[in-house]
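Many introductory courses stop at the sequence. We go one step further.
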Amino acid sequence: MSAIPGDVDPDRQPPMTVPLRHFLVASAFLPLGVLAGVAAVADFRPGLLSLAHAHLLLVGWVCLTIAGAMTQFVPVWSGVDLHSTRLAALQLPLLAGGLLGFAASLLLTRLALLPVFGAAMLLGFWLFVYNVGRTLARARPFDVTERHFALALGFFVLAPLLGLVLAVDFTHPLLAGGPVTRPGVVAAHATLAVFGAVLTTVLGALYQLGTMFTQTELHGVDEPLRRVEELGFPTGVLLLAGGRLVGSASLARVGGALVALALLSFSIVLARRLWGTEVDRTPMLSRYAVVAAATALWAALALPAWLADPLARASLLGAPGTTHLLLLGVVGFVVLGTVYHVVPFVVWVHRYSDRLGYEPVPMVDDLYDGRVAAADFWSLLVGASLLVADDLLGLPSAASPVGGLLALVGTVLFVANVVGVVREHAPQSLPTVLFGDWAAASEAEPGPVESD
């Protein structure tokens, strides 16, 4: 795979406000999700807090970021126009509004409202799948990144559908006495969402971003490891989800082993890219280094746990006690590192690219504050490490609250840094980026005319 592809076409990208709006709204959900986690650690648990916490982070932060990144990345990387800018703009209020209502219903235990807001999120996800799928369909032949994205879109169809079934089942039992149980559907939903939709997207993106920004190429043992991951991971996710759905431990055991071995293989590929690079460290690469280490550790712990009992509730996301390791150490740091490149890059292209060669312009990495980026990195790393260590080793009782607070501080610093890029450098104001024509019209309204 070429480290720096020559056929990337930035002219194919959608209007700047479309992906940036996704990233900014997603960034607002990040501290909300972390705050919910801190509340849980402090034993303040209104309503179904744990479910609200999981959805605020995974749907609100991670999936909205993925929706914005795919909307930006697929047209540019694949060299095709986005199928519909209108659909890309419509998916965001459906997802964000549906999630806010869904989380509020969980916290207030208004369970009858869950299907309404769940249906809004389902429609938002399916609009995203249709729009990006139609865009991706025009790119042939698929490379490794595009193949992962196509598979991820399929998982984005299935996971929200099971989620809606679970939302309806809260008040109108659909699963009582049926061929599958509610715990089986919950496990399959989580598997398809976290490993299928989220991690398949992450792996596809890292194959491209990891080579492009380390200025290295896959070589030697990387190629057989890539084949292990590319064949084993999606197959393993389907087997693991299917086994959990129907209660088949043997099926889930095979799937879990494939998932763990595939992610272990990928962690080696990513670590080799980072080890072989000669470029200066950036917030993106520093966070990817955490991802490589966390993925290897998670896979090494998950493999024996899933071979022993892949249906155990405590082993839903790997070995018992590794949820923070997976969601913060792997998924979280991937998203953090990627946003630290994508948001400044999108802003730079629209604000400064036409000026290059005519006047002094900043570099992409000059748009954010490097000191704030370092501070949020260490806050999040130390906070996440305390949470993971407490999960695995049982640290003193103060460890988890301190870790949660450090993670919250890190997320606030990260959001402030990203929002600062848009506010200081975007050619349009922050309200216009967020609210579009309505905000632009409001800003353009003349003030009252004073009479003499």
